[in-house]
Amino acid sequence: MTATDRILVELNSFIQAYATTAELVAKQNLDSTNISTTQGHLLMLLAKQPQTNRDLAQTMHLSKPAITKALKSLTSQGYITGQATQADKRQIEFQLTKTGLSLAHHHLQAHTEMHQAINQALNQFDTNQQNTIQEFLTKMNAIARKDPS
């Protein structure tokens, strides 16, 4: 097995474990609610300030239809509400309900715990190694987005 193969195996393993852990943590922390990790992220963003579908799509680097689907689900479950903006009545600005705010805080807590664990792992590397890791991940994201840079 080549070095590249070993790195890809570890990277794939991390991605799968991270996604699984994020889903499990979200499900445990959100009192058996039926929301996805993406929806949890939306709640966390809306906890900062009300936002439109377009704003959320740009922030999360997802399509507007994907955000619309997630927002419809969150609305139907009573976690968010939408209201036309004063500047443009065609734009809907979404904000959290009390229940949605509570879920957003749980999601933020799960994020904070994961961030702390990753930070501890990264602190075991010196600055040059951390820069190499960052450069590698930047290139992997470009490949995933099919961006030739």
From TrEMBL:
Keyword list (alphabetical) reads: DNA-binding, Transcription, Transcription regulation
Q: Which SUPFAM superfamilies match?
A: Winged helix' DNA-binding domain
Q: Which InterPro entries match?
A: ArsR-like_HTH, HTH_MarR-typ, Metal_resp_HTH_trans_reg, WH-like_DNA-bd_sf, WH_DNA-bd_sf
Highest taxon of the source?
Bacteria
**Residue ranges occupied by any HTH marR-type domain in the UniProt entry:** 4-142
Indicate yes or no for the key word Transcription regulation.
Answer: yes
- Which named protein is this? HTH marR-type domain-containing protein
Provide the taxonomic classification.
Bacteria, Bacillati, Bacillota, Bacilli, Lactobacillales
